[in-house]
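EI: anyone free to look at a 159-residue chain?
SC: sure, send it
EI:
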Amino acid sequence: MSDEQTRKVAELISGERFAFLTTITIDGKLTSRPMTLQQVEFDGDLWFFAERDGNPAKHVAASPQVNVGVGSGGSWVSLTGDAVVVDDPAKKRELWNSAVEAWFPQGPDDDSVVLIKVEGESAEYWDAPGGRLATAFSFAKAKLTGQRIESGENEKVDL
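SC: here you go
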């Protein structure tokens, strides 16, 4: 992926607090759940805290292919890649914050707390400048004119 495309994906993800992490269950079905994104410099990887014995970590260990969906307003990103469970005390302390502590009061050094690192392979994004209001206006305009909605920028990129 070009530096410009990486910056665009990073810009759309930046500031988002939550994402949907989609994993493959032990019996081969897709399942999604909201997870809190850990804010780091985006280089194609995303980080989440999880419980070692929880479903997200179990699913990733059994089948590493995942999808992460992020979006609000008029911008959305769908990132696909492989995930790995990481048990690195230094990395956990580096990413630790008060929001994480609310979910994991046992602290970053507890063995039950792990990280899930998603190594992005590709992403698709949709960016409708102007957010919800512009999207609503574009929808109304399309309905009135009978023309296709102007939905903004849509790109598929390799990470």
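EI: The longest strand covers residues 113-127.
SC: 👍
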